[in-house]
Amino acid sequence: xQETIKFTKVSGAGNDFILINNLSGKxxxxxxxxxxxxxxxxxxxxxxxxxxxxxxxxxxxxxxYYNADGSHGGMCGNGGRCAxxxxxxxxxxxxxxxxxALDYIYHAEVTGKHIKLRMKGVSVSLAELKFVxxxxxxxxxxxxxxxxxxxxxxxxxxxxxxxxxxRFIRNEARLLPEGANVDFVQAVGKNRIKIRTYERGVETxxxxxxxxxxxxxxxxxxxxxxxxxxxxxxxxxxxMLVHLKISDQAITDVFLQGSAYILFEASLMYDxxxxxxxxxxxxxxxxxxxxxx
Length: 293
Prior knowledge:
Blueprint: E1 2-12, E2 15-21, H1 31-39, E3 49-54, E4 61-67, H2 77-89, E5 96-101, E6 104-111, E7 114-118, E8 122-123, E9 128-133, E10 136-144, E11 148-153, H3 162-170, E12 181-189, E13 192-199, E14 204-206, H4 210-224, E15 230-233, E16 239-247, E17 250-259, E18 261-271, E19 276-279, E20 285-286
Parallel strand pairs: 2-3, 4-5, 11-12, 13-15
Antiparallel strand pairs: 1-2, 1-18, 3-4, 5-6, 6-7, 7-17, 8-17, 9-10, 10-11, 12-13, 13-14, 15-16, 16-17, 18-19, 18-20
């Protein structure tokens, strides 16, 4: 069965996604297979994940998120901010909105080029996870900010082989069967950090990760006594801001703020049997310019 799919390519601080508007409720395709086909960097559109906006009886819309490998993702902070940007620009909501994801209601606000997203509060355990990789010790902390993360504080993240180290830790037996995202974090000021993230489901390093920025900012604030809000520089070169309050290792009032851009809109033909994609002629429309550097 072939179906024409209209989609929007979006980016949150370099974390890129394919977004499909299904507020009509007419999308009947198998979403894991669709995510794998569309997100392929070589045979599809290419993206870190697939976002489907569905109707919700509890909020302005529901965000259904899939990783590039087709697995159903946890909460995606950058994806949520991109969905909020799309909803505002397409008059689905006003500049303030709420949306449903994984049975939780998130609140977002459009503030110029930035989207500010309220995240879940979390509790922090300082119990250490120790790993030995090729004879070298690594120590991290586990934290769930909507998606599970292992955060490792390092002195020089630029020198790390994030792909090899991240893949090892992501698949470590103590973290299975779900696995975890892996964030390598370096403090570069009293309220500033630099991070590099290996994302499960994408299975490589990504240019940004929203829940990873939140996880890293929280662990850095607690363990290194950084002063919130914490500025987080991601691999794309962009910077996100994480607001939070710390009380007896309980983290509240967590907000993720950063850029979210609509890159372009297009259509394609998708065959649900063969999972093959055929471009539709003259379908491309640039919707918004990329961020200024």
